[in-house]
Design brief:
Pfam families: FUR
Number of domains: 2
CATH topology of the largest domain: Arc Repressor Mutant, subunit A
Protein name: Ferric uptake regulator family
CATH architecture of the largest domain: Orthogonal Bundle
CATH superfamily of the largest domain: Winged helix-like DNA-binding domain superfamily/Winged helix DNA-binding domain
Helix content: 25-40%
Strand content: 15-25%
InterPro entries: FUR (IPR002481), WH-like_DNA-bd_sf (IPR036388), WH_DNA-bd_sf (IPR036390)
CATH class of the largest domain: Mainly Alpha
Shape: globular
Number of strands: 5
Organism: Haploplasma axanthum
Radius of gyration: 17 Å
Distance between the termini: 42 Å
Oligomer: single chain
Largest sheet: 3 strands, mixed
Structural class: alpha+beta
Mean pLDDT: 84
Low-confidence stretches: none
GO molecular function, one term: zinc ion binding
């Protein structure tokens, strides 16, 4: 099944309408981490010009855990939430590359397993693990 279809099915399965605006947001966010302004710009290119509608649909997708908000530096980004142990709507590991302003991900369930079994976390039921790593490419001057 196509990854976008997975999200469409999730929205339909919750009894919600799969609007063209929601489809466009999912398409835009596939394999990207974008700010609201960047999402807005991409949607404007597709003819979706109502800022309130964009905001409301984005808020809906976050609330329904189709999209997750990430805070990196002083900026809020949006990312599709994937239902697998390495990258769920709750648990993420992102690397913010300072020299290129690129955001990449580490999708490794072993890391989450290692952290969740740490003795300091023994008495807790973890809801999520979110890690932001700031880095620069070693090859950059």
């Amino acid at each position: 099944m196509d990854i976008k279809e997975k999200y469409y099915d999730k929205i339909r399965g919750m009894g919600h309408r799969l609007t063209n605006n929601r489809i466009a947001m999912i398409e835009i966010l596939e394999n990207q981490h974008l700010t609201f302004k960047e999402i807005q710009k991409e949607l404007f290119k597709r003819g979706y010009n109502n800022v309130a509608s964009i905001y409301n649909n984005l808020e809906f997708l976050v609330k329904e855990k189709v999209v997750v908000e990430l805070y990196i530096g002083n900026r809020k980004y949006y990312d599709l939430a994937m239902d697998n142990p390495g990258h769920s709507n709750e648990s993420h590991i992102h690397i913010s590359l300072k020299d290129t302003e690129e955001i990449t991900e580490i999708n490794d369930p072993d890391i989450f397993e290692f952290i969740s079994k740490h003795p300091k976390l023994e008495g807790y039921d973890l809801e999520y693990i979110r890690i932001i790593i700031g880095a620069k490419n070693k090859d950059a001057n």
